[in-house]
Structures are given as structure tokens and as C-alpha cells.
Design goal:
Helix content: 40-55%
Number of helices: 18
Radius of gyration: 32 Å
Number of strands: 9
Structural class: alpha/beta
Amino acid sequence: MRATAPVTVPVLAVLASCLIAPVAALGELPDVEGATLELVQIVFRHGDRSALVDLPSLPPANWPRGFGQLSDLGMLQHFRLGTYFKRRYIDHYQLIGPEYHPESMYIRSTDVDRTIMSAQSQLAGWFPQTSSVFKEPHILWRPVPVHSLNMPDGLLRPYDKGTCPRFTELEDNHYRRLEWHTKQDETAPDLACQGVGVAAPCNNREFIGGVGKQSGLTELKLGNVWEVSDTLLCRRRHNMTMPDWAGYDATGTAVYDQLRHLEDWDMYELYFGHEERLLTGGTLVKEMLSRIQDKQRGKTPDYKVLLYSAHDTTVAAFLEALNTNHWRAEAPPYASSVAVEFYTLKSGRPAVRVVYKNNTQTDDWNMDGSALLVPGCSDEVCPLDSFIKATAAVTPTNWEAACLRTSDSGDSGTRTRTALAVGVTMVIVVGLICLLVLWRRRYRSALYNFSSGETDRKYFINDDELSDDSDGP
């Protein structure tokens, strides 16, 4: 683990401008009556960023910090999200104090610039400063440590190539599934087809082929259509030049909307399935349950807030693992978050509530998220024992072993039977070779004795003679 460097001066300038923002009341998410909030764990997506790739058919974009980097807007999004969390968990619930303390809060990020900077920006909202810690310059900011691990990261990015070989294998098979082919054969909007030069009506496969020709990505498929839709999203959000076929007119908007729809569909479909959920989002479910159990045991340090700064894929996989009603029609937007709140109810019974805040594209950052119902729980406030049972199927007991490739690991019973069969076969082969050698030696001896006129005595040898004959066959 390592603590990352503090945010840069441009980041501080963006955040400092927000410190005078007015305080608003909490939204409509009701408190759990008579309960005490003991712990909150929040996984969130980074904020707005630059595109990850350029399209061959477009002139190169001039991203100030390069590809895949957090933008000033992304910093602002997370500062506002941190301000919301401060109002909810510090001011309202008084879960932790107004100043950061390493024994009450822990922050982990993937080892990616945009997630680390998002966490730092958010923490400036959690802990706003009223006076500078420096005499000069006068900066209303105090650093808070953000921890990260080198790749591969089995907790926050278990889906990366090479991290979990079994999931990579499932991902490869994913493109052969019936749902995949059904989606490709689904009819695309006529206007979207026409926008990429394909005669209407057309299906999604033909639409994607048209997008590939227009964008210059000739190998475009449903599985990597996000490369186009994500790049167009970033260019739109930053008022950059758009291609004619995906412009701001009705036809271009139809193309853009269909691309976004296909990306959103694929985002959740990739983690849809028991084993997929177990190997991806299930690792974070297990981590959070472990932290809750640590809290119950009184383990130190006594964390009350745990933050996980990650990606849309992390949030999507986590939501899929919980199998909640989380609006699969839209992938997790920038700065969206899932909070797992752990309570002690008035009765003394422990309970969990899952809150998804995906309204981050609006100007009202004070809006609460929505409580989600986890299948297997009778209510959004779910007793802990029910929550554990509800998530048991996707909570891996040995993730490393489960991640072995089928071709590498296979079924243990099959391996045992195969090894036994090979061993028996080897014994039989060795035994047959020994018998053959023994027979050949006896046969040669018999032929020799037959030519000497001693066949009756030597060829039909009895056991007593064999035991006394030191030369034996």
C-alpha cells in the first residue's frame, strides 16, 4: 500500500472556488427509525475524464492532460459528492468528526490517476478547511491519504485481463451466448441506420458495421463499441468537434443514443451470470461483509467510513453481484456511488441498507440516492443474517482457486480419476514388459537346452529346481 501524492495546485484552485457554496438540506431518503449508523462503505466511479482513445476518422483531440485523465469538471463532481457525504455522514449522522482521523476512515483507490485524483477531490469536500494549514500560500485544503495497490487488483478490478483467468475465459465465451446474438440481431432505429450509411431497416450488427466504417475502426463489434460511444461522450461533454454522422442534429443524436444504449447494455450483461458475479463484484461484497464483521468483533482500527475509488465497471459488477433493482438500462455515470450502510436497529439487531446515488448528472448534488432491495431481503433495510444469506452464492470462499482456468484446474474428481487411470496403466505396461522379458529369457533358454538333448529336464523346470538354480531364467 502507498499513500498518493496530494492533488495538484490546479485541482486546489477548482475546489477552493466551491468552498463558499451554500449548504442545503438532505434529500428524501428516510432515516432508519431508532437505528444507529455504525459503518458506511462506499464504492464510487471516478469523475468526468478525457477520452481513452481517439477515432481514426477524426482529427486528434487536444486533451490538456492526455487520455484518460480526470478533468476539472470531474474534480468538481467529486468535491460536490464529498460535500454531500459530509452533510449526510458527518453533520447529520455524526458518524465521524469534522477532521480526518486515520483510525476512523480509510480510503482505497485503484492505481489509476483519475481514481486517485477523484478520491482526493472528494475528500476535500468531506473535510473543508476554514483556515489554511500554511502561513503562505493561503490554501484552504489539507491532504488525506489515499491508498492503492499495483495491478493486478483482485478487489476493485478483478475483471482485468490476466487478473482472473477464469473470468477471462467466461468473457470470451460471453460473445457466443444466445443473448449476445439476440442483441446483435435486434432492430436498430431507422434514423440511426441511415446516419451511418446503412439502409433501414437494419439490425444492430449492421448498424455497428456502419459505425466501424464511419469511425475508421474496421474491427468494431458489440463488445468494443464502447470505444466509439465513450469517445463521442467525452467529446460532447467538452464541446469538441463531432463527426457529421454523430453530430447534434436529429440523425447524429439517433446514432449517438443507439451507441450509448449498446454500451450500457453490454456493461451489465458482461457480469450477468452466477459465476461472473462471484468472480467480479463478489470480491467486494465479501470485503464489505468482512469489514462489518470486524466492526461487530470490535477489531481495531475501528473504521467508520471506508471509501473505494474505482470505475464504472467496478460499480456495475458490484450492483450485479447484489442483483438489485438498479436500472440496468444505464451504466453507472461519472461520480455515481453505492453506499452500504450498516446499522444497529432499535431492537439491537444488525441490519444493512444499500443506497445507489446515480443522479450525479443533475445540478442538485444534495439529492439523496435510492435505497435498493436485495433479493432475499424482505425490506430495503435488511437484517444482516438475511443479507449474508442473500449474498452467499456470490461471496467467494477461495477466489484465487475459483479464478483458475478450467483447462488448468478442471474438476478435482476428474483429475483424480485421470491420475489413477494413468497410474494403473503404467503399472500394467511395466508388468507386461517384465513378463515379456522373463518369457523371452526362458524361451531362449529352452531353445538352447532343446538343441542339447536336455529338453525334458530344463524346459519343464519345477519350483524346487528354480530355487536351487542360482543362474535362474
